[in-house]
Amino acid sequence: MRILHFSDPHIPTPLSHVPLVKWLGKRAIGGANLILGRYRLFADAAEKLAALARFTAEQRVDLVICTGDYTALGLTHEYEEAVRTARPLMNAPHGYINVPGNHDYYLADALREERFRTYFKTTLTSDLPESQVDGPWPLVRLIGEDIAVIAVNSSRPNPQPWRSSGKIPENQLAQLQKLSEDHRLVDRRVFVITHHAPMRANGKKDNRLHGLTNADQLLLVCSEFHRALILCGHVHQCYHVIDKTTGQAIFCAGSVSLEGKEGLWLFDIQGDEIKATKGRLNGRHYELSSEIKLTNQAYPC
Ligand SMILES: [Fe+2]
């Protein structure tokens, strides 16, 4: 089984498409940020996702996972573009699983109008619908005989311009805890996916304005699974780290489209062994670079 994980494409759209009434508060600052640099850094995101779709087909990927931040400002026309651009990635044999990022819920209107659930509706089916206690979350997908993916949502609107932190709601975490004891998952390799990184590459927690505010709780719950891996994004750096306290393995895919720092993870799962290989962009093509082998007993780097 081969799984591709990417994150944070931040697909740009023309700022002239933003209705005047939406240029208030944090979006005015976010728009200025786009003009001043972000727009340039993600300018080729759509072309890069097209290259990623070609890479996915070439590598015979079975399942594609995206950990959010398709947009910059969480607006309707950005969602339209995001779905259009990501659609070629949704055709893998075992489908496509995703969660929203904080930019997709930029302000309360994105959440109030359920934009993520509306535009990504076809990707939000769960094999265990009775576990969905907070909208579609946690969303569980049983992949083949040996793998399960559980998606929990850490993103929320952050009206303060300086804040982009996340939190997994208590009811989702409680349900995740229940799933760790569910007989249907006990023999499966579990991938828990969410947008915010519970830990940075240096093994330290992210700060309270940018990080996952209940990272400790997530790490603790995930360590209750027999052998779970956490996949995330938000931090625009592709890395792998192990939490020393819980032994929990974390893979952050960084951004698939950030100029000069494009990254992704490719996981090959065979029995108890997982090979995790980093990917990068070389010219107009993604390619594989360094690899890590994980066993059932431990997660050596
Ligand atoms: Fe983010």
Structure, explained:
By secondary structure, this protein is an alpha/beta fold. It has one domain (2-294): Metallo-dependent phosphatases (Purple Acid Phosphatase, chain A, domain 2, 4-Layer Sandwich). It is built from 7 helices and 12 strands. The protein has helices at residues 26-41, 45-58, 76-86, 108-112, 115-119, 170-179, 215-222, and strands at 2-6, 63-66, 96-98, 139-143, 147-151, 189-193, 228-232, 238-242, 249-253, 263-270, 273-282, 285-294. The strands form 2 sheets. A 6-stranded mixed β-sheet has the order 3-2-1-10-11-12. A 6-stranded mixed β-sheet has the order 4-5-6-7-9-8, with no helix packed on it. Strand 6 (189-193), helix 7 and strand 7 (228-232) form a beta-alpha-beta unit. The protein is globular and about 55 Å long. 47% of the residues are buried. The structure holds fe (ii) ion.
Helix and strand element order: EHHEHEHHEEHEHEEEEEE
The largest β sheet comes out as: 6 strands, mixed
Total helical elements: 7
Across the major sheet, the strand order is: 3-2-1-10-11-12
CATH topology: Purple Acid Phosphatase, chain A, domain 2
Strand % is 15-25%
Provide the CATH superfamily.
Answer: Metallo-dependent phosphatases
- Mean pLDDT rating: 92
How many β-strand stretches? 12
State the share of residues found in helices, binned by percent: 10-25%
